[in-house]
Amino acid sequence: MNKPISTTVTIIIIAVVAILAFIFLNKKFVKQNYAVQVNGVGITKSTVNTAIAQQLEFYKSQNQQAPNISTIQESVTNALIDNALVNQYAAKHNITVSNAEVNNRYEEAVGVFNSHNNIKGASDSAFLARINQMYEIDKSEYLASLKMGILKDKVQASVGEPLTKWLQEQKKTADIKIY
To answer: Which residues fall within 8 angstroms of residue 164, CB to CB, at 6 or more apart?
Structure first.
């Protein structure tokens, strides 16, 4: 009778160790892949690094001295946290941005660029070349940034106060983990 009990106890111990190992490795995996988590939603290190590279490219394209890398990293991390909080609020309150809204904003930006640069017509090739030169992003990435801008406008209208003030308050209560 002791032998079946000791086998059962051994199996239970192995199962518990396996579960604890899984939990530990899972947390380690999350920390290795995410730079930040906002209310349980991860922002990858790759996303942060890409945004840092884009900021550095912007300063380079403007022939400006870039701030030190830790300042840029802090700024980028804060902006990505802001975006995550905006996205979470928008999802919770069914605030959306249509493709038509993004396309309209894009056409406005191209029109202004073309007008300021004496470019006739509605071609976006010179505009996209300039965006790529400044930020090393393509049209789809630029459209995504426009979409976020529109979403921020809508969230600000919904919360009824300046977005920066609202975000400061949200950061006080949000579960933000920076790895």
So the answer is: none
Q: How many CB atoms are closer than 10 A to CB 38?
A: 22
Can you tell me the mean pLDDT for 24-53? 82
Q: What is the pTM of this model?
A: 0.78
CB atoms inside a 10 Å sphere around CB 173: 8
Judged on CB neighbours under 10 Å (0-12, 13-18, 19+), 19 is exposed
Determine the average pLDDT of the residues in 26-33. Answer: 58
Q: Residue 176 corresponds to which tokens in the numbers above?
A: 């933000």
Identify the architecture of domain 37-178 in CATH: Orthogonal Bundle (1.10)
- The alpha carbon of residue 131 and the mean position of all alpha carbons in its chain are separated, in whole angstroms, by 19
The domain ranges of the chain are 37-178
Strands (E), 3-83: 34-38, 41-44
Q: Residue 87 class from Cβ within 10 Å (0-12 exposed, 13-18 middle, 19+ buried)?
A: middle
